[in-house]
């Protein structure tokens, strides 16, 4: 067929469906079908073979299924009834009164905008690379279930991340097939006159246009920006070609489009969010655009607008290492933002300072995480341990604040239970748990009933999933070998790999070196004995992608593949190429054990183990990320005791041996300990402990509820107050802060008196009096505190307890008297330190003013 040249006029053709199957089209354009088993089955049942061929894309299914199959479906009364039931359930879901509507009825019209560079809603929309994107997708799904007035904002990558295949040597290769967005469950957003919604962004020397697609996830719209328009130059059309593709210029172009363009797109759609949530730093430029828009609308200076914007900005950081945060050289920033900084009324040094930990260091680059931390009052890490790591990483932004008080909180990640639970497991839970379990996955009382599930039924359910996983793995290995041009004898052997009854371990994630995918390969002889024990065989499935530029990650994949080709291991170790959400579902629901071996503390949270846990899989993991909070000795296994090493070689040696010991002495014996009924009773008890303790905690509903209570609801209240009356409160707050900063250096402690006339005993109190020179600062503008605790050899107060002091009046010349009573809680050498913090009703944290006085 010839390739046409010249102007192409386009039009869209939609499938022609029999009248009684037309509900399928509405279902196809709402990703609710992806987490509703009956809806998923309605599409699969229409033509199972085509359903797999189109990658679970219902729009393509309806377009490509034969008319014969379509007519047969329309004449099958049982199938038609199933379609009608599912369509009715979607209508009921969308119309139901939700938790948010009942709990916060006055905020139902207060939109929350959730920005992310990637979203993993389903494998048919490949605009995700890994855990961050899947988390974003699960956030939208949980927000839909809870009824939050949330909208998502991202980019429509027409080539997605990449498709992976391995060459004959086992080296990862990448291909980027172009995706026809018009064949996905997406719809172009249009104005009332039918024209596309298009926004413009100023780039160096030109203007770039983008139009907007919408993916509907239950009640939540996800808006995706696309620059693939003929009005743009070819290089600009490629801004939305690949996720995380290109050089530094491409990266900053994508982040400008996401942040600045995303804010403009919402405005063009008539959406006025009251909260903006930045999931990772890629979208941090949105804060600058919001400031610019407020400055234009209300003619206020930068500091006033920034105070109002920060009140309604939430920032979630996911990266526990400095190198994982986007940092742009000043020359790159200047190319794109010199004019923009002028529109903000900032000098160039002041603009660059927004992205620097040390504003005065002109050699420091512009960091997107720093920008987000400075322009968001709501900040959080994604696990408790990651919170500790993040506070240590970013303490230079708050140089005078004790590390454990740096204002970065923790909200541990969770997974959308209904999206990750296998249909077999869901059916079992329906039978024995409270029927509300699917709508209330965070209700711990519901999960206590897991003990009522008979061991035999739980085990049979799990075995079916393992058998299905083995069948899928064999099929994929068969296809991999054919693509690679393997010998027919080798292809035929693919049908014999793995054992559907053997203890099966899964390891699937991004292949970054810190995740140590090859830790199990430290002693191949010992591994061989473990895997090939005829009485107690073990097998391992690997899957995952390395970043295209990460050769160390690719080398790990190559080593696994080459090891798996050894004659003595080829049936026990399998690497599944092109890891995606389909493979993830089979793996997390079918393995017995989920293995996680990160180098602590570099795993921010991790969610793959949570997905396995909801299906009854048991976790073996280093005590890092979420597993520090989830592990309780009876619901899985820990590698080590949470040690952290500076010597990586020693670290790997110690933990590889610990992992072998765990498998040989605990995991394998427990799995194969069977009674006369052939049931592993002690293993099943651990499965139930895992389900009972992990499912109600590590789910996305609990996570979104925490974001709502800690950030969204308080942020709306603070933002509304600061924005009212033309930003009057924000103006007053900014003036107060500027005045306080001007006077802060004049603070001094004139005296600190400890009233001690006898030896102190545990339970006694120690009166403290201080006199402080406040100058022109008023007592109501500061919080005077005593920090008390044990003193170490360096005369530092450790694990200090903060005790507020009471103002007892002015003693003249700007000097004020304060007093407090210190409780003597424990024996030993104690010390006290005086500090003063700003105090204002509009301060989200006393440290956000950047002022701390230590006496």
Structural commentary:
With 855 residues, the chain is of the alpha/beta class. It has four domains: 19-95, no CATH class; 106-283 and 313-410, Glycogen Phosphorylase B (Rossmann fold, 3-Layer(aba) Sandwich), CATH 3.40.50; 417-698, Rossmann fold, CATH 3.40.50; 745-854, Immunoglobulin-like (Sandwich). 40% of the residues lie in helices and 18% in strands. The strands form six sheets. Strands 1, 2, 5, 6, 7, 8, 9, 10, 13 and 14 form a ten-stranded mixed beta sheet that branches. A six-stranded parallel beta sheet has the order 17-16-15-18-19-20, with helices on both faces. It has a four-stranded antiparallel beta sheet with strand order 21-22-26-25, with no helix packed on it. Strand 13 (378-381), helix 16 and strand 14 (409-410) form a beta-alpha-beta unit. Helix 20 packs antiparallel against helix 24 (581-590). The longest helix is centred in the last third of the chain and has 45 residues, at 700-744. The N and C termini lie far apart (82 Å).
Please summarize the sheet with the most strands. Answer: 10 strands, mixed
CATH C-level category of the largest domain: Alpha Beta
- Counting helices, strands and paired strands, the structural category is alpha/beta
- How many separate domains make up the residues? 4
- Report low-confidence residues grouped into runs of 5 or more: none
Q: In whole angstroms, how far apart are the ends? A: 82 Å
Percent helix range: 40-55%
Tally of extended strands? Answer: 28
Number of helices: 29
Q: In oligomeric terms, what are we looking at?
A: single chain
- Taken as a percent bin, the fraction of beta residues is 15-25%
Please, what is the CATH homologous superfamily of the largest domain? Glycogen Phosphorylase B
CATH topology heading of the largest domain? Rossmann fold
Q: Mean pLDDT, rounded to whole units?
A: 94
CATH architecture of the largest domain: 3-Layer(aba) Sandwich
Query: What is the approximate shape?
Result: globular
The radius of gyration computed from the alpha-carbon positions, rounded to a whole number of angstroms, is 29 Å
